[in-house]
TrEMBL record:
Gene3D superfamilies: 3.60.21.10. SUPFAM superfamilies: Metallo-dependent phosphatases. GO terms for molecular function: hydrolase activity. InterPro entries: Calcineurin-like_PHP, Metallo-depent_PP-like, Metallophosphoesterase_sf, Pesterase_CT488. This is Serine/threonine protein phosphatase.
Length: 233
């Protein structure tokens, strides 16, 4: 089957924070569903690298999770800077199980195998212009990324990394994250977080031997992008 990815869905079915007010986001929930159903089939995997729901808690995000559950495929969720509902892996998976969300799981200090690749990653970190660089956060994210890639390497499959924050953006670089990717020979990295006019400075191509791809929902016009396929023909 196939692996797709799309980030930054910013679902807000009950949390009162719809994105339709922003240019390019008009009718975005319907557009997500239409594009998803036109491409993804049962047995496929879709990686969602952060900012999936505006819900402030697991209960607050339930309607958004149920929307995803109703769509075809297995969904792998990573943490974004706006995923306030995020909790420990055990608590999230217990919540998913209790509410019949059987196609959802989170990626957190682990890896997931799908269609001949090992999906790994973390939130990542990149300081914004004018903001202080937080060493504590970046060190923690590097550890999480290392743990995830180490699990991926045990599978013998190619580790394909998904991050919320871009390791490289314009002339800014998160050297610690980039060093982890290079240390482990990662060849592909997908990321989100960047929107609207900011996309013009996003790296969407090769950088120091790594192929980076921006997959924010609005950047992709809410159409999931293919990562890997094992289909014939």
């Amino acid at each position: 089957m196939a692996v797709y990815t799309i980030g930054d869905l910013h679902l807000s079915l009950t949390s009162g924070h719809p994105m339709d007010v922003f240019p390019g986001w008009e009718n975005y929930v319907a557009r997500i569903e239409r594009a998803w159903r036109a491409k993804v089939v049962e047995g496929d995997t879709v990686v969602l690298p952060g900012d999936t729901s505006w819900g402030m808690s697991l209960e607050g995000a339930l309607a958004d999770f149920q929307f995803l559950e109703a769509l075809p495929g297995r969904k792998i969720l990573l943490k974004g800077n706006h995923d306030y509902w995020w909790s420990t892996r055990s608590k999230v998976h217990a919540f998913f199980s209790a509410h019949g969300l059987n196609t959802l799981e989170i990626l957190h200090n682990n890896c997931v195998t799908a269609d001949g690749i090992a999906v790994c990653g973390s939130r990542g970190w990149l300081f914004e212009t004018g903001e202080a660089f937080d060493d504590k956060i970046i060190n923690r994210e590097c550890i999480r990324l290392e743990l995830s890639i180490a699990e991926a390497e045990k599978t013998g499959l190619e580790p394909v990394v998904f991050l919320h924050y871009p390791p490289v953006y314009g002339e800014s670089v998160s050297p610690q994250i980039l060093d982890v990717l290079k240390k482990h020979g990662v060849r592909r990295c997908y990321y989100g977080h960047i929107h609207a006019e900011g996309c013009r400075w996003a790296i969407d191509g090769s950088y120091e031997g790594i192929r980076f791809r921006l997959v924010s929902g609005d950047y992709l016009k809410f159409d999931p992008v293919l990562v890997e396929t094992g289909r014939e023909g």
